[in-house]
Every structure is written in structure tokens, then in C-alpha cells.
Design brief:
Blueprint (H helix, E strand, L loop, with lengths): L1 H55 L8 H82 L4 H15 L4 E8 L4 E8 L8 E2 L5 H5 L3 E3 L18 E8 L2 E9 L8 H32 L9 H18 L3 E8 L2 H8 L1 H18 L5 E6 L2 E7 L3 H16 L4 E2 L2 E2 L5 E8 L6 H17 L5 E5 L4 E2 L1
Parallel strand pairs: 12-13
Antiparallel strand pairs: 1-2, 1-6, 2-3, 4-5, 5-6, 7-9, 7-12, 8-9, 10-11, 13-14
Helix pairs in contact: 1-2, 2-3, 2-5, 3-5, 7-8
């Protein structure tokens, strides 16, 4: 702005200089013309006097009248030559002024063109720098998301990156919960946090259309009902990968503020990077869950037990602690399968898995070893503490009446064997052999009972 003002001031001064030169040229021409007229009048007066004297003294003068006429013509010719010379000088100066003025205008246009070109190049450079920064941020978030070990870590990175990419806008991320078939908001950013904590995919027009939904109209806009209060403008980006719904990315603004085309394109790029990373994390967690969990009961499997039990035994060895292990078997499970079908048997297994998950402590481990056998690792529990807890679980299952596919199943009872470490086994292999012997003793004792292995008495009671 300062440079343009200086340029305007200089242009004014230059125009005034050109006008001054033109005025001086006009004044010079006027002076020349006046001087010429004065000389012409003087010459005429002199010639007239000479002619009068010659007429009076004609007889005495020896100069003929023709000589006087020639002198007069020569004087007039000299005066005309001077006028022509001065006029030529004035025309040359005027031409030079016009050339200078034309050069000045051309120079000004060239400078204006160069200045406009520089401004456009600067704007292009700034735009490219901004795009480079945005692409670098997207690449960085893509790398960070693919190194996340859990979805919660990914949500934190998405939250921080969204605040950086859209500093003047609000937004949030909602993740699809397969169990409840709803979208649950996991993070929001900006001055206004408008997304509801939980809502159905049917509440969002983006899922109705299966594509990005943008609202930028100021007159009678159609907002989705999942907002707690209406925003200004908004863009909803459904996160869908190979037909599987991952979640929803929402970007919105304050009332009266639109979302620019550039911001919309950036949001689409952000969503593309995000949904692929979240799909990868979900797949990794699913595979990990399948590798460590039993698909039917949801309990940990034998592989998980083989990895974690040795670590717990090493821990109690260093800290001189104790833990107990209980192996449980369903009494008469084969008869249930044979009489009521394998589907009913599966329901019994699911029921027992659910009870174990609800009754054990947070630090304990419940596993399905295979078939109808389960194992519970009771951390920091001696045999005296473990036995009543296992008894409570057996009684709780026994007291339930199971109706599956309209048929009332017989009472489900359990047999259990208990052993403690390090007294009955310092490593996982010895401990599992010991507890297996205690379970076998419970089966031999008539089932529906609990047996504890006691090393000092060399007996199972």
C-alpha cells in the first residue's frame, strides 16, 4: 500500500513536469510571434519614413526606389527565417516532450505489469507453500496413524492434526460401533462442539447418499439431526472402506461463515488418509483379538495363556508372591450335545464364558483351553482364597436355569481342580500338570466338586 502511494505521488510530479514544459514551449512560441510582429512594425515604420524622405528629396537623392523595395523584402525574409527557425525548435522540443511522455506511460505500464506479475507469483508461491505444508502434515499423520498400537492413540493424533489443519473451524470424529450399530463421538475440536455423544447413521445425510454432504447455503439450510445445535456451514465425510463403515468426520463453522472450496478439498484428503489408517488399525485389532481370544466365548485362548502364564510366574518368583490356577470342566457336556444338539452346547459354553468374565477380578485371567475345559489364573491368591471364589462361580452357574431353543436344559454343574504356585509348580508346565491332576481327581470323585492339590500331604483334597 505504501509503495503504491509513492508511485502515485511520483506519477503526479512527472505529469506536472510535462505540463510545465508544454507551457514553456507555448510561452516561447508566443514570445517569438510577438517579437516578429514588433520587428515587422518597426521595419514598416522605418521603410515608410525612408520612402517619405525619398519622395520629398527625390530630386536630391540618387538612390532609386527599387533599391528601397529590395531592402524591405530582405528584412522581411530574415524575420520570417527567424520565425521558422524558432518554430522548428519549438516543434522539436514538443516532439521530444511527447516522446518522453509516451516513454513515461509505457514505462509505467511495464512497471505495473511487472508489479502485478510479481504479486501473482508471490500469491502462487504462498499457495504452493501452504499446499506443501498441508501435504507434509497429511503424510506425517498417515505415518503416525499406521504406527499406532490402538485406536485410542489414533484418535489423539487425529484430534491434534485436525486442530492444526482447520484452525478457524470446528469438527469431530464419530466411530461406528458394530455391537450397538450406532456412531459414537470419540473426539471434538474447535470453539463449538456440536456432535451428540451417540447417534444413528440414519441421522446423517452423508450415509443416506453414500457420499460427502456439504451445507453452505445461508437460506433454509438442511442440517443433519445429530447436531446439538445448528452450525453455520458443515461438511460430512463418511469413512467407508470396502463397504465397511468406519465412522464419520464432521467439519463445521460458526453461523454466517462458509467453508471454502479449498477447505473442503483438504477435508476430503484428510478423510481419505484417516479412513485407510483406521481400517488398518481395526483389522490389526481384529486379527489380534482372533489370535488371543476364543471366538465362541470371548475368553482368552490357550495361546494367550502360554504367553502370559510364564510371565506371571516369573513375577511372583521375583516378588515372592503367590498365584492359584483353577481348571474347570463341564459335567455331562457330551450328553447335552448329543441330546439337545451342538447349538445348545455352544450356548452353554457362551453362558459359562459370560459368567466367568463378570465374576473374576480385573487382574485375573479366564481362558478356554478347548472343548468344555476352562482355566482361571487368580493373581495374588493362595489356595485358601481361591477355593471359595471358585466355589461361588460353580454355585452361580448351577443355580441358573437355561432355556435354549424352547427346551429347558438340565442343571449345569462343574468340576474343578485348584493348584497354587510356586508351591505346586515353579513353571507353567509343572503347574498345569498339577492342576490337571486335581481336576481328574474331582471327576473321579463323582463330579460337581472341587479338589485342591496339597503337596505337603501328597494328596488331593
Amino acid at each position: 500500500m505504501k509503495n503504491s502511494s509513492a508511485w502515485s505521488l511520483n506519477a503526479t510530479y512527472r505529469a506536472m513536469a510535462v505540463l510545465a514544459i508544454i507551457f514553456l514551449l507555448a510561452l516561447n512560441s508566443f514570445i517569438i510571434y510577438t517579437d516578429y510582429n514588433q520587428k515587422l512594425i518597426i521595419q514598416n515604420t522605418h521603410n515608410h519614413g525612408t520612402s517619405t524622405s525619398a519622395a520629398t528629396n527625390q530630386a536630391a537623392s540618387s538612390i532609386p526606389a527599387v533599391s528601397i523595395s529590395i531592402s524591405r523584402e530582405l528584412a522581411l525574409l530574415q524575420a520570417k527565417q527567424q520565425v521558422i527557425l524558432y518554430s522548428a525548435q519549438s516543434i522539436i522540443l514538443l516532439a521530444l516532450c511527447l516522446v518522453l511522455f509516451a516513454w513515461y506511460n509505457a514505462n509505467r505500464r511495464v512497471k505495473a505489469t511487472i508489479r502485478g506479475s510479481n504479486e501473482r507469483q508471490l500469491a502462487t508461491l504462498q499457495h504452493l507453500q501452504l499446499r506443501t505444508h498441508e501435504n507434509a502434515s497429511l503424510n506425517k499423520i498417515n505415518e503416525q496413524l499406521h504406527t499406532c498400537h490402538s485406536a485410542e492413540d489414533a484418535y489423539t493424533i487425529i484430534h491434534l492434526t485436525a486442530k492444526m489443519l482447520f484452525p478457524s473451524l470446528n469438527g469431530g470424529l464419530a466411530i461406528y460401533d458394530k455391537a450397538t450399530k450406532t456412531l459414537k463421538t470419540v473426539c471434538q475440536w474447535g470453539e463449538q462442539q456440536l456432535l451428540q455423544a451417540s447417534f444413528s447413521p440414519d441421522d446423517c445425510w452423508a450415509f443416506h447418499h453414500g457420499q460427502v454432504y456439504v451445507v453452505n447455503e445461508t437460506k433454509k439450510p438442511v442440517y443433519c439431526p445429530h447436531y446439538a445445535s445448528p452450525p453455520g456451514a458443515c461438511i460430512h465425510l463418511p469413512l467407508i472402506v470396502l463397504g465397511e463403515t468406519i465412522g464419520l468426520l464432521d467439519i463445521n463453522s460458526r453461523l454466517g461463515i462458509a467453508i471454502t472450496e479449498k477447505q473442503q478439498q483438504l477435508a476430503i484428503m484428510f478423510a481419505e488418509s484417516m479412513k485407510l489408517a483406521l481400517a488398518s488399525i481395526n483389522l490389526r485389532e481384529t486379527l489380534h483379538h482372533q489370535a488371543m481370544r476364543d471366538g465362541l466365548t470371548g475368553l482368552f485362548n490357550r495361546r494367550y495363556l502360554d504367553e502370559t502364564l510364564p510371565r506371571h510366574l516369573e513375577h511372583i518368583k521375583r516378588n515372592q508372591g503367590v498365584l492359584s490356577v483353577a481348571m474347570i470342566d463341564i459335567d455331562g457336556f457330551k450328553q447335552i450335545n448329543d441330546k439337545y444338539g451342538h447349538e445348545s452346547g455352544d450356548e452353554v459354553l457362551k453362558f459359562i464364558g459370560k459368567v466367568l468374565q463378570q465374576t473374576i477380578r480385573a487382574g485375573d485371567i479366564a481362558c478356554r483351553l478347548g472343548g468344555d475345559e476352562f482355566l482361571i489364573v487368580l493373581i495374588d491368591s493362595s489356595l485358601a482364597n481361591a477355593r471359595p471364589r471358585i466355589k461361588h462361580i460353580c454355585q452361580l452357574i448351577k443355580s441358573e436355569s437355561l432355556v435354549i431353543q424352547g427346551a429347558l436344559l438340565p442343571q449345569v454343574t462343574l468340576s474343578a481342580g485348584i493348584a497354587a504356585a510356586p508351591a505346586q509348580g515353579r513353571n507353567a508346565k509343572d503347574l498345569l500338570l498339577t492342576v490337571d491332576k486335581a481336576l481328574y481327581a474331582a471327576k473321579q470323585a463323582g463330579k460337581n466338586c472341587i479338589k485342591t492339590f496339597r503337596l505337603k500331604k501328597s494328596a488331593i483334597v
